[in-house]
Write a structure and sequence with these properties.
The strands form three sheets. This protein has an eight-stranded mixed β-sheet with strand order 1-5-6-7-4-10-13-14. The protein has a four-stranded mixed β-sheet with strand order 8-9-11-12, with helices on one face. Strand 5 and strand 6 form a beta hairpin. The relative contact order is 0.18. It is α/β, with parallel strands linked by helices and about 375 residues long.
């Protein structure tokens, strides 16, 4: 690993790159694929008067899910609820209905046509992997006969849709800001340093995410000290650290990213469901028995503080950044986690089943890209 050489999906899926590797396999193209890539066909109509696609409710829709997950090869075992025996399927039958518009149904051909000869990069932790896996399934099941190849190294996984020259990329970054080994100190989380931005800034579409690891402690915490304003500390308030790290990222967007060429998107905070008090079920400590979404548009619990921090920091950015504001609509989906139906048989109420909720995140991403050219 680390050579960056080209591999098939079946090779990639067997390689453990740090925490994250998203893999599919090479499929054969048909004779129409090249013609489709350059065809000047009519784009699907898109509702442009929607004031806020993130305010709405979940409605039952018999036409869902958008694809059969069994036809999407190499879904990671963390997310493949169907493969690992989830017996109920009602969670797959819900569609997000905004209050003031209808979301366009995801169109794989149109998505790739619009991104022809471009790159889209997801930058973040395993929640970014969760969304990328969903997008790959939407694209591959929508265009089952298109050529797909994979490339990977220790940090970056790339899936290339050759017929459209579109690259879907995952860049593994837990905090966005840097972790560096400092001699005689150890691993230092540097809240004012963001060196990977030199790799990111020339990508056509950037989708950022960070939050999951900011409160991680113990043996799995990947740093020993934190540095802020040239002071090295053993620890600090984690929410303050999150705000400072995100502020460093925000300043980088304003100083380094040419937003006339690069679209910048920040994925809102993805919620977990381990505290039933938040959805009016005191005593419930996980999502194991949740089968349906919360009815209506209001979540009984409050927004996570981290989601408020994200909005505060985004308001300081002078350049255009779109917030993929998935927090509340995902809070309503206490039923959409893998729970124990994953390859580890461990209770997971943090990530999401694929197929499932992340498909809606990608519908919203698709809508944002369409409505902004």
């Amino acid at each position: 690993m680390g050579s960056g050489k080209q591999r098939s999906y079946s090779e990639l899926i067997n390689v453990g790159i740090i925490v994250i590797c998203s893999c599919l396999f090479v499929v054969n193209s048909d004779s129409d694929a090249d013609a489709d890539a350059g065809a000047k066909w009519r784009r699907p109509p898109v509702e442009r008067s929607c004031a806020n696609a993130y305010e709405g409710r979940w409605v039952y829709d018999e036409s869902y899910p958008l694809y059969d997950s069994s036809t999407c090869p190499n879904i990671r075992k963390e997310f493949d609820c169907n493969e690992y025996g989830r017996p109920d399927h009602l969670y797959l039958k819900y569609r997000w209905q905004p209050d003031n518009c209808d979301l366009p149904r995801f169109d794989a051909k149109d998505f790739l046509w619009r991104l022809s000869s471009k790159k889209i990069m997801f930058i973040g932790d395993s929640v970014s992997l969760n969304q990328m896996q969903s997008l790959l399934c939407l694209l591959q099941t929508g265009l089952p006969n298109t050529n797909i190849i994979g490339q990977s190294n220790d940090t970056i996984t790339t899936v290339i849709f050759e017929d459209y020259d579109v690259s879907v990329i995952l860049f593994h970054s837990l905090y966005l800001v840097d972790i560096q080994v400092v001699e005689n100190v150890g691993r230092v989380l540097k809240l004012n340093s963001l060196k990977d931005g030199n790799i990111w800034k020339n990508i056509d579409v950037l989708v950022f995410n960070t939050w999951l690891w900011w409160y991680r402690r113990g043996p799995k915490q990947p740093w020993d000290y934190v540095e802020f304003d040239n002071k090295i500390l053993k620890d600090m308030d984690r929410m303050d650290a999150f705000r400072q790290g995100l502020t460093t990222w925000a300043k980088w967007v304003d100083s380094d990213v040419d937003t006339t060429k690069t679209r910048v998107i920040f994925q809102g905070v993805s919620p977990s469901h381990y505290n039933g008090t938040e959805w009016d079920e005191p005593g419930v400590t996980n999502c194991a028995n949740e089968k349906q979404p919360i009815v209506g548009s209001k979540y009984p619990g409050s927004l996570p503080e981290a989601a408020l921090v994200v909005k505060d920091v985004l308001r300081t950015i002078k350049k255009p950044v779109h917030l993929l504001d998935i927090t509340t609509l995902s809070q309503l989906r206490k039923d959409a986690h893998p729970s124990s139906f994953n390859g580890f048989k461990a209770m997971d109420c943090t990530h999401w089943c694929v197929a499932g909720l992340p498909d809606t995140w990608n519908q919203l991403l698709y809508t944002a890209l369409v409505n902004n050219g």
